[in-house]
Structure to design on (875 residues):
């Protein structure tokens, strides 16, 4: 599904991603973790070209990502993304947020788009909020709307960039529950997160990054009980300690 | 090549836009260069100018003394020239933040006194030149300088007045600010020029220059007041609380704590206001004063040189542009530092 | 209090000395001067001063409203160009804004007037970019419903016409104000969080769709207040018409004041009119702000 071969990325002179090799299969759930500044967010943003790589290859669903706008648009239609700061459109209602892209990008007729939207709103368990504005919802509700918005495009792959980091603790669970359900239904997912419980439950693979490199990649059972590198051990002791 | 692809030809609509723009530039810039430089006449010979297709810069060569100094006596032009340089020097000097100390005021006082002596004369063996004969660049700069100098304290008073708790003061301040900001500068210039003499006992006249200066001051004060008010509002409330807690009386409090912070915040907007004021001085042409724009326009009246308005106003634009662009890049340097 | 008394008594004495009556009675008198151009109004020298001033007002409003429309369109495009990825577009727009904002409006007005009256050919050699439209140093002529301009002798007859004064004022005002509007639009667009464009792009929306559906609606909130203030500036700046001979309100009021000596009343009228315009625009802006505040 996703292939990254010898990918390097720079922010001006700063070498943020170093020789990344990564493969994600269809249906696989990958959790990416690591200290801040390790390049995790940048890594997943390469998948839908919100960031550009300077060398190497990024191939998503058979399409190689280059400057070609048509290819980028094709990839973005099949890849959904959920952001740390939700990024819901404040001037539109929840329903309008969800139907916007299907209507304008996939040319789905309005009625059908609204039906799909209500279906996914029910899936994330807030169908009654359809006509409210994002500012009237709680953080947890907003993030669930964001997930529903991405799902309305019926993507093949979902990217999550620290989806719960901006939420109050009591709302994290409702969002994680939705993500777990999604995983159980077979969605291919790449999740950047600090929620290790989620990783243990759902991930097929855990990828640990540090200073722009993939340091360790292993199934969760192996990663959490027997990390091989010192950096991973240090990280785990800090994160799991509290 | 890669740069060109990314920055100019990224997509079809963009490519078309780039090509259109390039063809527009190609159509206008070479002919302009021909007109302005290659075919241009640099000699102050109006016959040659009319005969040629190019720009007549000879007009500028011929008239530059009048444009810069107005009707000031020809042989004494070194005086306004020196005065202009001193005034510009004072402005540049004040731009350095390192010099924002209390002795700056003294420097200005001395500088302005010297300028006054140079312009008016009458002492130290310098011939007296009445201010009706002043004109050109020095007039524009003086109107701006005194305009800002007097409007600034007035603007501060108005800004404080608008935020005051006393209803009468507040009403007067708001009324003044909204009235002045709602009308064009020209109406104020007319008012000063025509109405001011009526307000005074017959026999007492106010100098025309002074009338215009007063109008400019009153106008600028209202706009400065709003900018300063913005600065006052932007100070964190905690500062006001702390100042109150120190039990300082109102003026002390304002002068020592509130105003310095408000003004610092407002500096970029203040500089923008100064630039606007500098440009607005060009309006005194309409009431018959001989600022820079006016001298340019008048120099076109001579029969030999009528019809070269385009060149004349391009030169005027250039001079104004140089001053204003310098001031605005100064203002931008503030935004970067903060 | 004392100051006011001092001023008023002096004024009364001076007015009496010059035998100028106070009050607005003069408005009913015959004006005796012609006005070069009017918009939708008929006027001749035997009409009253009041009518003359009314004509001035309509002239002011005409050039202001058309100016606002052109300036908004031009300014929006230039503001968006300033944000473009295209190097040429971005820098050309930036150069435009820098130049227009750093040269006084009056200089620009004189410049455009000189371009039209000196730079354009006479009616016989008039430029004709499109059939029926003629640009000459006597003005710009265009076809209307009532006819097409035709060269008769030394000038054009028939169709509609824009005088050089109106054209210079309109072009000067629009291009000048457009530069300020461009900056306002740019600031408004920049004020919209990057995350919004990222979310839109992640959903697959094109750049054009993102700008239209997501960025501009949110940018408008930031743009409208300073935008209305620019509209007001344009209207006030139209008063510079007096310097290039376009008969706007200030220009006609000035002529009236010169003829009748009623300076105070004349200036009062000018200020009252402009104050009304500016208060209406402020009121509209407050209404708009209140309407969008909840979201």
């Amino acid at each position: 599904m996703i292939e990254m071969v010898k990918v390097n990325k720079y922010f001006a002179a700063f070498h943020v991603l170093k020789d990344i090799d990564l493969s994600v299969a269809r249906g696989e759930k990958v959790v990416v973790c690591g200290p801040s500044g390790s390049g995790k967010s940048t890594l997943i943003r390469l998948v839908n070209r919100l960031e550009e790589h300077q060398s190497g290859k990024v191939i998503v669903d058979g399409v190689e990502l280059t400057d070609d706008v048509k290819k980028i648009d094709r990839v973005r239609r099949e890849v959904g993304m959920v952001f740390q700061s939700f990024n819901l459109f404040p001037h539109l209602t929840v329903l309008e947020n969800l139907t916007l892209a299907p209507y304008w990008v996939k040319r789905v007729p309005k009625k059908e788009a609204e039906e799909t939207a209500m279906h996914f709103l029910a899936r994330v368990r807030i169908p009654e909020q359809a006509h409210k504005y994002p500012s009237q919802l709680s953080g947890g509700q907003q993030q669930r709307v964001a997930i529903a918005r991405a799902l309305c495009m019926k993507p093949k792959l979902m990217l999550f960039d620290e989806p719960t980091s901006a939420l109050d603790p009591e709302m994290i669970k409702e969002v994680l529950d939705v993500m777990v359900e999604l995983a159980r239904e077979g969605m291919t997912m790449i999740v950047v997160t600090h929620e290790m419980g989620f990783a243990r439950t759902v991930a097929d693979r855990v990828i640990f990054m540090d200073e722009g490199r993939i340091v360790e990649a292993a199934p969760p059972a192996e990663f959490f009980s027997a990390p091989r590198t010192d950096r991973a051990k240090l990280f785990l002791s800090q994160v799991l300690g509290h | 090549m890669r740069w060109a692809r990314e920055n100019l030809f990224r997509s079809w609509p963009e490519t078309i836009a780039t090509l259109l723009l390039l063809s527009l530039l190609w159509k206008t810039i070479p002919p302009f260069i021909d007109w302005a430089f290659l075919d241009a006449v640099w000699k102050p010979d109006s016959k040659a100018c009319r005969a040629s297709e190019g720009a007549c810069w000879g007009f500028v060569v011929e008239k530059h003394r009048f444009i810069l100094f107005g009707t000031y006596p020809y042989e004494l032009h070194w005086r306004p020239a020196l005065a202009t340089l001193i005034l510009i020097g004072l402005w540049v000097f004040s731009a350095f933040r390192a010099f924002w100390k209390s002795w700056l005021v003294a420097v200005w006082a001395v500088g302005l006194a010297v300028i006054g002596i140079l312009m008016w004369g009458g002492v130290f063996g310098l011939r007296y030149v009445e201010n009706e004969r002043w004109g050109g660049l020095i007039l524009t700069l003086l109107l701006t300088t005194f305009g800002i100098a007097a409007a600034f304290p007035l603007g501060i008073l108005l800004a404080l007045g608008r935020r005051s708790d006393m209803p009468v003061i507040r009403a007067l301040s708001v009324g003044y600010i909204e009235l002045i900001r709602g009308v064009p500068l020209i109406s104020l210039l007319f008012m000063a020029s025509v109405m001011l003499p009526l307000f005074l006992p017959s026999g007492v006249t106010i100098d025309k220059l002074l009338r215009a200066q007063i109008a400019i001051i009153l106008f600028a004060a209202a706009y400065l007041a709003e900018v300063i008010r913005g600065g006052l509002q932007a100070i964190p409330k905690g500062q006001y609380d702390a100042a109150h807690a120190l039990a300082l009386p109102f003026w002390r409090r304002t002068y020592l704590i509130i105003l310095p912070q408000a003004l610092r915040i407002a500096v970029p907007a203040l500089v923008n206001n100064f630039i606007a004021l500098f440009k607005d001085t060009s309006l005194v042409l309409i009431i018959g004063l001989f600022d820079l724009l006016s001298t340019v326009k008048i120099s076109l009246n001579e029969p030999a040189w009528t019809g070269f308005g385009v060149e004349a106003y391009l030169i005027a634009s250039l001079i104004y542009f140089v001053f204003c662009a310098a001031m605005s890049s100064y203002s931008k340097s503030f935004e970067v530092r903060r | 209090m004392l100051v006011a008394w001092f001023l008023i008594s002096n004024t009364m004495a001076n007015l009496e000395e010059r035998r100028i009556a106070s009050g607005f009675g003069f408005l009913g008198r015959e004006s005796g001067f012609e006005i070069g151009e009017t918009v939708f109004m008929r006027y001749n020298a035997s009409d009253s001063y009041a009518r003359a001033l009314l004509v001035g007002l309509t002239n002011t409003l005409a050039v202001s409203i058309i100016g606002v429309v052109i300036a908004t369109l031009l300014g929006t495009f230039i503001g968006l160009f300033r944000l473009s990825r295209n190097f040429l577009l971005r820098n050309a727009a930036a150069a435009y804004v820098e130049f227009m904002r750093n040269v006084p409006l009056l200089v620009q007005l004189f410049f455009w007037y000189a371009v039209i009256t000196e730079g354009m050919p006479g009616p016989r050699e008039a430029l004709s970019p499109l059939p029926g439209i003629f640009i000459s140093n006597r003005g710009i002529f265009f076809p209307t419903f009532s006819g097409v301009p035709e060269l008769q002798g030394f000038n054009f007859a028939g169709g509609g016409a824009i005088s050089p004064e109106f054209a210079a004022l309109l072009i000067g005002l629009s291009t000048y104000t457009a530069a300020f509007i461009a900056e306002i639009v740019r600031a408004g667009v920049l004020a919209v969080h990057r995350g919004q464009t990222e979310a839109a792009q992640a959903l697959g929306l094109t750049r054009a769709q993102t700008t239209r559906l997501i960025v501009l609606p949110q940018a408008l909130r930031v743009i409208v207040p300073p935008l209305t203030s620019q509209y007001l500036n344009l209207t006030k700046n139209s008063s510079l018409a007096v310097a290039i001979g376009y008969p706007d309100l200030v220009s006609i009021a000035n002529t009236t004041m010169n003829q009748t000596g009623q300076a105070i009343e004349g200036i009062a009228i000018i200020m009252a009119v402009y104050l009304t315009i500016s208060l209406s625009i402020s009121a509209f802006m407050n209404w708009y702000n209140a309407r969008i505040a909840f979201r």
User: Anything to note?
Assistant: DSSP finds ten helices and five strands in chain C. The beta strands of chain C are 134-136, 139-142, 150-152, 155-157, 160-162.
